[in-house]
Amino acid sequence: MTSKTPTPRRAAAAAFVGTTIEFYDFYIYAFAAALVLGQLFFPSENPMLSTMAAFGSFAVGFIARPFAGMVFGHLGDRLGRKKMLLVTIVLMGVATTCIGLLPTYAQAGIWAPAGLIFLRLLQGISVGGEWGGAVLMASEHAPKGRKVFFASFAQWGSPAGLLLALIAFRLITTLEQDDLMSWGWRLPFLLSGLLMIVGLVIRFGVPESPEFAEVKENDQTSDNPVRDVLRGNWRNIVFAALAVTIGSGGFFFTNTFMITYVTQYQGIARSTILDCLFVVTILQFLSQPCSAMLAGRIGEERFLKWVAVLCMLVPYPMFLLVQTGNLFYMTAGIALAVVLLAALYAVIAGFMAESFPARVRYSGISIAYQLGSGLTGGLTPMLGTFLAGQYAGQWLPLALFFSVLALMSLTGVLGLSQLRSAQARPTALPTSHGVA
Q: Which CATH topology does 8-420 take?
């Protein structure tokens, strides 16, 4: 190892900073969809229809992610992890900045929502390629036996990016309503251009993953990694996609749909729920590395199974506390759910990565994660809004919906555990005639 090769800690730190910037960009769209985009780009006499349309544009980014996972996975397994990460951060920065420059429906008519959806599609493509590369740059630089823990640093970028997004939107919601709707909403998007430059500088300083470098040096790269992983590891992909369900869908349930739920159905001020989510996200940020360390001590499989079960149970106390309308109780209820689903989210990335061989690993984890998050993360706010409208004043259908997401994750974790156990079993040698 040369002096130019970074330590595992430096690689993990670079993954953390890069994903923080990417997720900041992704989350500010989520908040804007919940707060302002419906009125600005999808005006309607029915506020619920405007919000549904805004969440529909939010879902577009998720629809693009499985396709992007395949494309960037293929290129990442052929050309390297680092090159793909440089492309994704530029793509995200440009798309997000351009959203901040878009004219609204009142200014450009139908071209405004069309442009918004196109740029949201680019955001989704960026995140679709980003996640797998960031996880692998952290885990493949890590020392043996600590890959799951180091991979969690890429996951740590999610609450960090969410904190930045919450701060940005909390600041602009202090503006007068007219100023917020005319120019204030644009500021968080325009900030993305500066963050993109920071991310590029950091990523240029980290060399290629040593595991991929070894695969390439030994001429073991796959000619068609997507085809190979779909043929040889399709069960891993299915179970891994299920395993990430609550980690993706659950976050957008608590951090995106919940904004709409408490403001439209409980009459709680936007500033109140944003303050609540800010405290919750700080707790998530602090708890995630602790969860990763705990999982390393008791075993990742055991940890993930128990956390998935607890996630099935947690929405009921969460809604009971949210229904009080009291800021302290609301924060406690949402924090309880988020800390649990964040525990699964912190550990699942490295657990998934270890379920695929290095030559097709970028493709495998990208397809699995983006398929799971695309189907659940993008649709969760829309389905939550639909259920809230159909069962106005009733929280039980929403809690059951959350439990189903957690059950899907439990199914995925159990399936991956069985596959990993089968792969670890030594193949029995054929016996000679007459010999037991």
A: Growth Hormone; Chain: A; (1.20.1250)
